[in-house]
Amino acid sequence: MNNLKQYIKDKNWAEILNQCKSLNGTDRAERIKYLISLDIDRDILEMQGHLLNGQARTDFYSNRQKVDSTLNFALISCMREFEDMKKIERPEHSWNPMLAFLAKPSIGIEPLLKFYELFPPDYLAKVVKASQKDRFTTIDFKILWTFYLQGWIAFDESYFVTRLFTITMFNRNTEEDAAFLLANREAIDRVFLQFHRYEIPVLDISKWKAREGNVCKKVNEFWTEIIRIMQEKGYVFDRILVQHLLESLLNNWKKPHLDWHIRLLDLLNTRPEEYLQHQHLLFSLLNTGSTSLINFAVKQIKEISKAEGFDENGFVGNITAIFPKEKTEKSILLSLDILDSILKKKVHEHLDISSELSMVLLQNDPKVQEKGARLLVNYVDPEILKNVVEPYLSNLKLKTLEILGLDSAPLSPSEEDEAFEAAEQLEQVVIPATWEELLFQIGNFIRTKSALDFDLFLEGLNQLQEEIPADYKKQLKPYCKQLFGRFWDTDLMIFFSEFMQHWVGENTQEKVKTRNDSIPFVKNKLDWMQQKLASKNKLPFLSTPSHQPFYLHPKVLVQRLLQYEQEQVNIEMEDLIIACNRLLYKYADEDTLDLVKRLKGSYAPAVQYYLGAADEVKPAEDMLALWAQVTRIKQPDQLFAEFENTVAKSYPSVVSPFHLDFEVVVDKSEYATWYNLFLQQNWNYSWHRKADTTHYPAFFYNSAPFSIGFRETIPFQMSLMPQYPGPLLCRYIPTNAMGNEVRELENCLYPMQFLMDHQLDVHGSGWLYIAVCLLFEKKISRDLATEYVQFSLLNRKRALSDLADILGKLIARGYAPVNRFIEYLDRPFVSQTIREFQWLCLERILEHFDGAQLPINSKKIIAYYTEVSVHLDKVLDQDLLSKVKRK
Questions:
Q1: Distance from chain centroid for Cα 869
Q2: Which of 306, 366, 459, 724 stands the most exposed, by the fewest C-beta atoms within 10 Å?
Q3: Which residues of 338-425 form beta strands (DSSP E)?
């Protein structure tokens, strides 16, 4: 056996093969056992590579790969049938030596071929099938192709194409692969040239050796270089590939994959006559809805539109599909030129595409609108022109209306948006009343992770303490298995899992040490529940909602407080504060007012003021946090001088409404320019700012005294302070309006979605968050913010001057591109209230403009200001305009 170890170290596969010829079953079993026991570094190489440096380290690992491959081959040489594959597996490895060798034959394929000459394989088809079960198990294509040529496996086009085009890390070389293909023309025809039929992994990132050296790029660049090398070597691609590539563009594949096929068409020097031959495919691309495919198709159609044989009817029948499409302005302008030249021909004089052509007026680009309007004037019967364009009047620019000879569309009165009807009667929640319902509630919470399901579970458990069955631990096992069998990355589920462990007596698991304090209330409430179970206290939690989704009726809260007073049990102050945060204080009726006057606790004056049973604000020190909450929620815009002599006088939103100063700071480098939004006290925890964020006492919820959370945590946080969410929203403001990571993208999505879903009101600097979302890089955030602004203007009848001023500062200082705001202006609103708000925004932007440092596209602001002013019969402020025009 010592000789065998030396053969492996010397990579002497020939002697290994020679020894295996005469091995019987017992010998092979002993050899397998010995080989599996070997450790390359300890037993064979007798050294550790990590102790080396420089070239010695590189040489060591290069040699180690080959020694490892030789060891794998030694194990393979003990195989005689497919069942032996399992026997040669090394326990400490997660892959099989046979599959490892086939994936990366560092000592070449010759040893394997020589072995199969001695012992012809009838099991390779099974080996190939076994490799297909694991996505990350590959077989080197050169080996696969050799097996096929030897007749050992059947040809499978799909599998062969996938293997060829899967580029594993460090294993491939463009020049070597190109040489292999050129030496195996059948492989080119039957495998390589079939790539257009499959969504191969060309978008993966991998590392390989290119002509320029070792690179790390997307795999499609590997194949682009292969094609270039083949062309340089004189290989001529069959022109049928052009047709195949054009056909492949109609597949529902990822955009970058299809974009690569477009680049390949250019690499193949596709000629105009070839595009003309396949023009029906170009026309089909116009209906895909893909901006890049549409732009590519129109560009080629423009080149062939004058050629003989161009299908003008086919073009007219398909081109209108792109007219409503966003981000295709240049293509639409080109297509309108082609359309104009076609409609001028006598043969098309009776062609009526007025309805389809009018859809071009959906575009907001002035040039597109104007060119479309001219075509409508030239080719549509004047008697029907007005009716044709009437649906688009609210979207038309003044110049477009002038071309059409029409007046602007009248703005509608400021009515409520039908999408936001008056709030329905709030639905009461149902607290679990039986053990079976409580079990269902546990599963419901694990699934939804919502604040309501959390509160309902705890209140149900609280009320059902006497009905917990003796075998409750056994019945809870399925739910505990869900909780304990995985890693939770949110405080919410970590705390809940720890509570369940305590309840069922399984505290053996190590608790997760977390410094995140995104929802400390959850941990506190679970601790209170443990205390209730221990003391058999069934008094209700004060903060448990009475109505969906998280609200509490004032009568219910007062009744709960009276229960505590009757039982002479102290309340949890945080529980009361959350209850007040959720309280529908405006729903207090005469019965509630009579009940609240009976309260005796030190919290009574604050609750009585909150519900309207008292008028005087008396912020006692021990109830300071409670007073701060109820006063600000009840009077969001009022100044409370009563707090001036308290320790809370400097806390946000206590004396004055919540207000944050902010600045936009430009950060330039040789690579990029960033416009960073910095908030007062580093309110949004920006890592760009060295200054530490100021934190406030935990119970002052209107100062958002906790850290930001992840997607499930955000709605839970907001349910704890739904009536004054501004301070919490501002914690989630990203520093930049573009180039953000997933966390920041979610921060401008989930809070905004929660606001809109539950139609919550925003006050003070909370509008800064809305402004940022309106200008943010993700369109879904901009859409939600637009919807919320519309709701606030039309349904809440808010003036939104604060929002207009914030938008003016952000845009004037370059925080986001002007075109993001232009997108908002271009939406087809017909409400005069919305137009007046937009005009106010434009005026504020102009006021904040610095004539010496105007942002890109500032001229568009002037153009829109002029246009909206005309629509609203407003007088232009020439002083504002002159400040900008001096640039």
A1: 38
A2: 306
A3: none
pLDDT band for 95, please (50, 70, 90 cuts): low
pLDDT tens column, 830-852: 688 999 999 999 999 999 998 88
pLDDT in tens, 395-435: 888 899 999 998 766 666 655 544 334 334 689 999 999 99
Count CB atoms within 10 A of the CB of residue 300: 22
pLDDT band at residue 93 using 50, 70 and 90 as cut-offs? low
Question: What is the full DSSP assignment across 158-212?
Answer: HHHHHHHH---TT--BHHHHHHHHHH-HHHHHHTGGGGGGS--STTSEEEEEETT
The CA distance from 359 to 694, in Å, is 53
Does residue 377 carry a pLDDT above 90?
yes
Bridge partners of residue 739, in order along the sequence: none
Q: What angle separates helix 2-9 from helix 25-37, to the nearest 10 degrees?
A: 60
Which candidate, 332, 310, 314, 333, places its Cα nearest to that of 323? 332
Does residue 549 have a cis bond before it (omega within 30 degrees)?
Answer: yes
- Residues making up the chain, counted from first to last: 887
The C-alpha atoms of residue 865 and residue 612 are separated, in whole angstroms, by 46
* Six token digits for residue 515: 């410094």
**Block residue for tokens 């409580």:** 438
Pick the more confident residue, 852 or 80: 80
Where b means 16+ CB within 10 Å and e means fewer, 794-822 reads bbeebebebbbbbbbbbbbbbbbbbebbb
Question: DSSP assignment, residue 665?
Answer: E
Q: Which amino acid type is present at position 299?
A: K
Percent of the chain whose pLDDT exceeds 70: 95
**SS3 readout for 701-720:** HHHCCCCCCCCCHHHHHHHC
Q: Residue holding tokens 């560092």?
A: 106
Tokens of 264: 């390949």
- CA–CA separation, 612 vs 624, rounded Å? 19
